[in-house]
Write a structure and sequence with these properties.
The chain has one helix and eleven strands, in the order αβββββββββββ. With about 190 residues, it is mostly beta strands. The chain has one domain: lipopolysaccharide transport protein A fold, CATH 2.60.450.10. It is about 15% helix and about 50% strand. The radius of gyration is 30 Å and the shape is elongated.
């Protein structure tokens, strides 16, 4: 009996070491990626010459969004835009246009991020001259009529030129807040 125990002990020890090695290997290895495509950031659709209009309760356009190309990614439900052009309509005022090189829409379109050469224009109306705003980044929240940036911005019209860093433009209240490094020049049109 003792001879059998002596014979089986090394074999049992080898089996125990093999199981320990297997467990240790599984514990140390990183988890295997899923092959179902859920970890990939691939588009599920693209649209060239994209255009969408959101109507107001009065049946008139509230805002439009166009882009040379729209690409949607299902993993984070984001939408990337090439050469986006956003237009906000308001009765009694000239439309406000936002154009840029690139754009990004959040899930439900409640946030629009414009990057690159961002140009905001409001055409002349009721004695007001054309207003132009330029920056490298603009965050637009269409449902709240807000536009925000923490980047340098230049605002100009026929008689005013203002440079600042950071801006909040509330289109409902028609109030524009400039946050820092504000420098402006006003030329009296009556001179």
């Amino acid at each position: 009996m003792r001879d059998r125990l002596t014979l089986w002990f090394p074999a049992g020890l080898l089996v125990l070491l093999a199981m320990l090695s297997f467990w240790l290997d599984r514990t140390v290895q990183p988890p295997q990626p899923k092959n179902d495509g859920s970890s990939r950031h691939d588009p599920d659709y693209t649209v060239d010459n994209f255009s969408a209009t959101r109507m107001g309760m009065d049946g008139l356009p509230h805002h439009t969004l166009t882009a040379a190309r729209m690409v949607h990614y299902p993993d984070d439900d984001s939408t990337h835009l090439d050469k986006p052009h956003f237009t906000r309509f308001e009765s009694g005022r000239a439309p406000m246009h936002v154009q840029s090189t690139k754009g990004l829409l959040s899930k439900e379109g409640e946030h629009a991020h414009f990057t690159g050469n961002v140009v905001v224009t409001r055409e002349a109306f009721d004695g007001n001259s054309t207003l132009t705003l330029t920056t490298s980044y603009l965050h637009v929240i269409p449902d709240k009529d807000l536009a925000l940036t923490d980047k340098p911005v230049n605002i100009r019209n026929a008689h005013t030129n203002v440079d600042a860093v950071g801006l909040e433009l509330n289109n409902k209240t028609h109030v524009m807040k400039l946050f820092s490094h504000v420098k402006g020049r006003y030329e009296n049109p009556n001179r």
